[in-house]
């Protein structure tokens, strides 16, 4: 089967944070700049969305529920209730905490649950105009039943979380570094240590920046390349590019595996006017078929 890229959702301004809910067979994602949370059901083709009161960096279902989610809004972690219907009202169930209170111009940019259901999410510096942001103002945090812990500081744009339990590794992107980070990862505590860089975009002549990221069952990384119009498959052990998937949008923001067999790669993109207008289908959400690999199930957030 040859690889095909298909548009599934109309363009967003800053699509991000795709999460496949295996139980509901639905894709959740956000449009950060339009302050929207989104749901797409491939079986029906139905796309619904609703608005929050601030810029939202991610949406992850709360484990054991059908209508509750943890979201990052501006600098706050919230549990919300949403029935998934179009333009329906969202209820704030609980506020879990606020980060970067000493740097009030940052915002949450990306977040995921690790294999144990702990939330990892990071922040980025103020951006105005688009593409011009304050460097090293953000941080990476972990949230679990014990509270919020700062994992890394002096982060410019927090992105691209992925875990490999066999290798006891966590992969992470601070996008302007143009490198992929690897940390030793303790699944029992959630702690990370021993930073190494396992891939350098500039040394490999890759145009663009590493953005969102996921991992397949073979241990290879799939990396969205912002300003690069592609997704890269990277072997983190060899530090080499195995495959390049062209995407018909310049600003590719994130990826996740989903579908009934976890063999569909969902790709979010943006259409921000940075130096030049990004015309449709830029900003659309795409699905990539025929890759011949599978991903791991996305993990929902476990509060306890």
Automatic annotation (TrEMBL):
Enzyme active site: 211
GO molecular function, one term: enzyme regulator activity
Annotated substrate binding sites: 107, 109, 127
InterPro entries the UniProt entry points to: 6-blade_b-propeller_TolB-like, Regucalcin, SGL, SMP-30
Cofactor binding, per record: Binds 1 divalent metal cation per subunit.
GO cellular component: cytoplasm
Name of the protein: Regucalcin
């Amino acid at each position: 089967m040859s690889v095909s890229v298909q548009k599934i959702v109309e363009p967003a301004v800053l699509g991000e944070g795709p999460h496949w809910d295996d139980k509901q067979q639905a894709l959740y994602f956000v449009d950060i700049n339009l302050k929207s949370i989104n749901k797409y059901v491939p079986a029906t083709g139905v796309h619904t969305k609703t608005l929050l009161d601030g810029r939202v960096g991610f949406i992850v279902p709360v484990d054991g529920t059908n209508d509750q989610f943890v979201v990052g809004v501006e600098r706050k972690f919230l549990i919300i209730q949403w029935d998934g219907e179009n333009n329906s009202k969202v209820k704030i169930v609980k506020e879990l905490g606020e980060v970067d209170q000493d740097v009030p111009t940052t915002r949450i940019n990306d977040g995921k649950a690790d294999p144990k259901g702990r939330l990892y999410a990071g922040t980025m510096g103020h951006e105005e105009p688009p593409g011009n942001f304050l460097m090293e103002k953000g941080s990476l945090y972990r949230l679990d039943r014990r509270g919020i812990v700062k994992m890394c500081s002096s982060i410019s744009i927090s992105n691209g979380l992925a875990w490999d339990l066999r290798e006891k590794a966590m992969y992470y992107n601070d996008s302007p570094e143009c490198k992929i980070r690897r940390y030793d990862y303790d699944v029992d505590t959630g702690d990370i240590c021993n930073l190494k860089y396992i891939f350098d975009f500039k040394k490999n002549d890759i145009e663009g920046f590493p953005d969102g990221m996921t991992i397949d069952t073979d241990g290879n990384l799939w990396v969205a390349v912002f300003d690069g119009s592609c997704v890269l498959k990277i072997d983190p052990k060899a530090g080499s590019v195995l495959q390049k998937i062209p995407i018909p949008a310049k600003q590719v923001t994130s990826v996740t595996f989903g579908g009934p067999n976890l063999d569909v790669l969902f790709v979010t993109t943006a259409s921000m006017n940075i130096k030049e207008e990004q015309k449709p289908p830029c900003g659309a959400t795409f699905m990539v078929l025929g890759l011949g690999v599978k991903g791991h199930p996305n993990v929902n957030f476990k509060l306890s």
